[in-house]
Amino acid sequence: MKRYFLCVVIVVAGMGAGGRADVPFRTGATFGKAVKVAEGAAGSGRCVNIEGDLLYVGGRETLGVYSLSGDPLRPKLLGETKDIAAARQIALQGGMAYVAARANGIWVVDCRNPAKPFVAGHYPSTANCTGIDVAGDVCFVGGSKSGLEFINVSRPQRPQLIRCVKKEPVESQSVAYRDGLLFSGEWGGKCVTIWDARDMTSLKRLACCALESNGDGVWVDGKWLYASTGFSKDDKMPGAKAHPGQMGLEIYDVANPRAPKKVSRVDFEYCKPCTYDMWLVRVADGLAFCTATGGGLYAVDVSDKSAPKVVDRWMPENKHSVTSVAVGDGAVYVTVMNSGTWAIAAKGAQRVAVERGQPPANASLRTPRPEAPKGFHRWLPSDTSLSANVTGLAVTGDVCYAAAGTAGLFVLELSENGITEKQRIPLAECMDVAIAGDRLFVAAGWEGWIVYEMEPSGELKEIARVPSAVARDVYAYGDGMRWAAFNTTVYDISDLAKPKPLACLVNQSRYNKFLSPDLIGGKWVAGNSALKYFSWLDVVAQPCDPPEGRDKRDPPVRKMEGYVSRMGGMCAFGEKAFLADNGGWALVEPGGQDAPRLRPFPNKKRVMGLPRWNGGKLVALSGCDRTASIWEFGDPENPRLVAWLALPCPVDAASFWRDTLVIPARLQGVLVPENVVYCRP
Question: End of a domain among 305, 330, 346?
Answer without folding.
Answer: 346
